[in-house]
């Protein structure tokens, strides 16, 4: 359970079975932005308003700080060991195979489940656009909802996942070009929102700033941490990066900077123009975000002239309509529809690279690690992952998947922060092109921040992680613990 695979061994393996190095710093930054800016900022702004009121601005800052500190730890490890697998590889080299498997399995909650959630969100945008277009096409419910929504299968979500998977099989360079287009559309749409909303800000909308206190701000930070999921996909692209020691830190920090500034400006514009006070019941008690009682209260007030941000399912688009910009609201919805496939693409990409390295280590069948003779991509594991994500998006409910994905991400960030400290102690002489400043302080604060945000997740999300880990350990006990290359001597 405690056998360690050295970083030198991982580096030698990657050199024997290389992936095509085609990504530069700009493409890596766009990878991070593409996999991060997605359903979260377009949808979860409403949930943050219900949990924190205008204080959701601080919630975004808090989530960004935790993510930024974790990025410092990621940057040192990614530059020191430019290997696909990211957190899984770092933990394998510092704490051993048992914890590496736990982290790799937890990352499924981050990547695959998040990709399914985004695919279902994209399907909803497609249905709405077709229905409100000039053609007035209404797709049958049985083909746009899974069994949980009164249908049979969410066919648009399935088709999206399969198309994205095939694109990833063709090649990383081609995927990066498509992703660059998607990122441009998203940034332009959110930039348009900022330009239109900031001049209309009213000071009165910020009072009271924190109606639910510090606890509400922290709850919102834990919920919207989902909006930062995906930047670590940059680290999983290590083996496909030119000059990774230099370009990986640039990509990590570049993506985090762009995402954080965008989120803050959007949050300020949303709270200052539309108002972000939480919805309350008749007794003046704030309602629980995502609850049935909140939905009923919003329905009661649906005929009012000014709807609460917490009641909006469109979030930013509804704000533009309230400001008298219906055409811009339609453009924002269209941009979200066009751009969300890039998030699905990058999340599936990150998941396949984790499984690729786990297969190469023998913890899952090594046939999954085969690379395509022409495109030099791990096509077997990419196809398997894409089909699994498509299946989940076709049938499973996704209402609370954001919090579930958060639990796996926070756990991975926590162990990566510890891995930096461990490797500083066990391998002090190893070359580190990028060194985390004040590493003992930074890594400790990162661990503390991840732990605090985990405590403020919903009860269901906190329970999912140990249950999911138990399933993973069962698979590891039945296969990986005996088939590991460290046991067979293949490493």
UniProtKB/TrEMBL annotation:
Its main location: membrane. Coiled coil: none annotated. Gene3D superfamilies: Amino acid/polyamine transporter I. The keyword ATP-binding does not apply. InterPro entries: AA/rel_permease1. Pfam families: AA_permease_2 (PF13520). It is a multi-pass membrane protein. The keyword Transport applies. GO terms for molecular function: amino acid transmembrane transporter activity. Keywords: Membrane, Transmembrane, Transmembrane helix, Transport. The chain crosses the membrane at residues 26-45, 57-81, 87-108, 115-139, 151-171, 178-201, 213-238, 250-274, 328-350, 377-396, 402-425, 437-457, 463-481. GO terms for cellular component: membrane. It comes from the Bacteria. It is found in: Membrane. This is Amino acid permease. It comes from Acidisarcina polymorpha.
């Amino acid at each position: 359970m405690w056998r360690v695979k050295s970083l030198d061994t991982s580096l030698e393996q990657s050199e024997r079975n290389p992936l095509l190095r085609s990504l530069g710093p700009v493409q890596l930054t766009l990878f991070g932005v593409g996999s991060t800016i997605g359903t979260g900022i377009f949808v979860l702004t409403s949930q943050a308003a219900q949990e924190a009121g205008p204080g959701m601005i601080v919630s975004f800052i808090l989530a960004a700080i935790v993510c930024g500190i974790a990025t410092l730890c990621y940057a040192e490890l990614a530059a020191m060991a430019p290997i696909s697998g990211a957190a899984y590889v770092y933990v394998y080299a510092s704490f051993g195979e048992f914890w590496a498997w736990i982290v790799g399995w937890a990352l499924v909650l981050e990547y695959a489940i998040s990709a399914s959630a985004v695919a279902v969100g994209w399907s909803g945008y497609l249905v709405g656009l077709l229905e409100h277009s000039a053609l007035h096409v209404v797709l049958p419910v049985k083909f746009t909802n899974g069994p949980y929504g009164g249908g049979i299968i969410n066919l648009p979500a399935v088709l999206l996942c399969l198309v994205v998977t095939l694109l990833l099989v063709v090649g990383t360079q081609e995927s990066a070009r498509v992703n660059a287009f998607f990122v441009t559309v998203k940034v332009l749409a959110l930039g348009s929102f900022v330009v239109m909303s900031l001049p209309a800000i009213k000071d009165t909308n910020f009072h009271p700033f924190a109606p639910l206190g510090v606890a509400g701000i922290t709850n919102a930070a834990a919920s919207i941490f989902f909006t930062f999921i995906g930047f670590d996909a940059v680290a999983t692209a290590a083996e496909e990066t030119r000059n990774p020691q230099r370009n990986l830190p640039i990509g990590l920090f570049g993506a985090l900077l762009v995402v954080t500034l965008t989120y803050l400006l959007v949050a300020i514009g949303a709270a200052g123009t539309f108002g972000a006070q939480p919805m309350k019941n008749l007794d003046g008690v704030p309602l629980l975000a995502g609850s049935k009682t909140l939905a009923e209260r919003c329905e009661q007030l649906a005929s009012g002239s000014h709807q609460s941000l917490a009641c909006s399912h469109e979030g930013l688009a509804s704000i533009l309509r309230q400001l008298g910009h219906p055409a811009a609201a339609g453009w924002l919805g269209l941009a979200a529809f066009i751009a969300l496939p890039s998030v699905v693409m990058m999340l599936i990409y990150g998941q396949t690279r984790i499984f690729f390295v786990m297969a190469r280590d023998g913890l899952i069948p090594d046939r999954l690690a085969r690379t395509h003779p022409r495109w030099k991509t791990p096509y077997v594991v990419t196809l398997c992952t894409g089909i699994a994500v498509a299946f989940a998006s076709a049938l499973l409910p996704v209402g609370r998947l954001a919090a579930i994905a958060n639990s796996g991400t926070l756990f991975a960030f926590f162990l990566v922060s510890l891995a930096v400290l461990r490797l500083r102690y066990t391998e002090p002489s190893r070359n580190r092109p990028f060194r985390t400043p004040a590493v003992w302080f930074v890594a400790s604060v990162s661990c503390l921040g991840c732990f605090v945000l985990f405590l403020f997740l919903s009860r269901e999300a906190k329970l999912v992680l140990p249950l999911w880990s138990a399933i993973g350990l069962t698979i590891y006990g039945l296969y990986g613990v005996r088939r590991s290359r460290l046991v067979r001597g293949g490493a």
